[in-house]
Amino acid sequence: MSKVIYEGWMVRYGRRKIGRSFIHMRYFVLEPRVLAYYKKKPQDNQVPIKTLLIDGNCRVEDRGLKTHHGLMVYVLSVYNQKEKYHRITMAAFNIQEALIWKEKIQFVIDQHQESQVPNGNKYVSFEYKSGMDNGRAASSSDHESQFSAQEDEDDSNPNLLRRTTIGNGPPDSVFDWTREIDLELTNQNANNQAFSRKHWRLLQCQNGLRIFEELLEVEYLPRSCSRAMKAVGVVEATCEEIFEQVMSMDGTRFEWDCSFQYGSLVEEVDGHTAILYHRLQLDWFSTVVWPRDLCYVRYWRRNDDGSYVVLFRSRDHENCGPQPGYVRAHVESGGFNISPLKPRNGRPRSQVQHLIQIDLKGWGVGYISSFQQHCLLQMLNSVAGLREWFAQTDERGAPPRIPVMVNMASASVSSKKSLKLQDSSAHHHSASLDQINTAGRNSAMLDEYSDDDEEFQIAEDEQEGISQYEALEEEPGDKIDLSWFVGNLRYDEREKARDCWKVSDGNNFRVRSKNFCFDKTKIPAGKHLMDLVAVDWFKDTKRMDHVARRQGCAAQVASEKGLFTVVFNLQVPGSTHYSMVFYFVTKALVPGSLLQRFVDGDDEFRNSRFKLIPSVPKGSWIVRQSVGSTPCLLGKAVDCNYIRGPKYLEVDVDIGSSTVANGVLGLVVGVITTLVVDMAFLVQANATDELPERLIGAVRVSHIELSSAIVPNLDPS
């Protein structure tokens, strides 16, 4: 067997002919002449799913950032220049891993180039470094130039720069403020560039940040547009870790950006450019001042010195029109510049610059200067938030996420004043913030049961005409008809609904990742394995066991339809006994899967693996602290009774069997009508071949009324 240069789990990324993207976890192995990937870690002489011969004609390209159901992955494409359609596209959930693979593959290619060509010429492509870019630091995200030389061309021209990445570069409308020093030195006569000379003065020091204000007055901007301001601070983290936080727009951002309310993807232009929708959370007289939102183009790149640049500027988009209840602000220029510093006491350090020049619009902005400045400082304080977030957390392995925009286009500009937010039970039509989040954060399917890596795959170059929205839609399938099933607890998707249930988004829960055995990282859970079809809320004078035997219940209906059901019966003791019963249905269990082993295993195995992840999104502080969000092996904490029927498995969970659980119940039951509770059920994965963990299902119950419980008829006759 050849020497292995590098190996590990990565993501197979691609698109099918219908335009839908897919990602699969695969084990990649890089050898001196071959890049291959396998479904599992190879043993003995296992045949790989696909191989690519590596020689001096190969290239590794940075495809940038791609979004798959809200999950962001960093994509690399490896191909032979003489056979461009024979390629391997791989991706990583974090940019550090992508950079390592890129470096290792490039090292192998370089070795072939040096050894195969006797006259010293190399199999490389070049880019002409034009006069307008002189003095510009080489960036690993700029696009390939039209002046690329042939693959056998000599490497002697000093103005030719070797390229290993692609991307369309920053849009013309986006001003790159991070290059202002170079522009000043090289373009002294460029008097048509409004920002060719920038001078800053220190305005104040706040929260450990230096806040600067631009001294230059710009004539063409409206009076309501602020001067550019930037915050400069030091964060004890690597540039890659900070960059991933800046790029994400999921729930983690609330922990360090106090001006963030909601963000989503409007359009993915390419791997380095995207159109985003962003709602601001500004606290300046919020009862009087209307909230602001933004639609802007975001461009990013990684420079050769290891620094990252993220730029943004407002723009209009047909799918992101004005939203009712919001004033559309305008970002003239802004972004982040993240640069590495020398480590101190063994800790990595990075300098973070955050620049904003914004017109918040509205009638009073040009006359109340304190409003503009207060909001700017609030936004710039995100740098301090980043510093404190990294100082206070060790959980840095989560992949960044960004929700996909759903139905945000206004009907027409002329009628925008008459638009009103409408309630709807459908995910993709709801305008409430939480429901938009739920719809946008669709799960990423890490399909471990599929061998169709190459089936229907099309080259990246053929995908430019495919709509990003079509690419991110769920693949149509033969879904279970939920109208077959009835439970006595009402189903309601509305945000403020009471005494009801709905399906909780799997990405609200963190589960063990594919590499958990090695690095203990956790990831958003993603799509459920089974569908929650009904919930029953029962009461009786005694404990209610084996409720699945009840005629007409969801488990019996599913059995008649040839479906399999897992029933979770949470039993709450007291003078009146209560049971909340959840029915999760699937068409069939996958043979050999962890779920199938749980269903057909013995009670000892089930007790060692049956896990619950609780959460209380809404409730008093004491209840939230008592319940927590730590996963719990229910089979070890309380008594669980397993009943295996012909087409179902029922798990009766006696919460009263634990004194600790009883104490928590005493708090919860007394205030149950004020609570919103999330619960996720899963089988714990311990071995590498069982990872990543997948949820059986998850539910959210809201403001439950004890009086709505009914007495069930458990007599089979």
Automatic annotation (TrEMBL):
Give the GO cellular component terms, alphabetically: endoplasmic reticulum
The record's region (Disordered) falls at: 134-173
- Show where the PH domain sits: 3-110
Q: Which CDD domains match?
A: START
Q: Keyword annotations for this protein?
A: Endoplasmic reticulum
Question: What SMART domains does UniProt report for this protein, alphabetically?
Answer: PH, START
- The residues covered by the START domain are 200-362
Q: What InterPro entries does this protein's entry cite?
A: EDR2-like, EDR2_C, PH-like_dom_sf, PH_domain, START-like_dom_sf, START_lipid-bd_dom
**GO MF:** lipid binding
Localisation: Endoplasmic reticulum
Instruction: Report what the protein is called.
Output: Protein ENHANCED DISEASE RESISTANCE 2-like
Query: What organism does the UniProt record list as the source?
Result: Linum tenue
Taxon lineage: Eukaryota, Viridiplantae, Streptophyta, Embryophyta, Tracheophyta
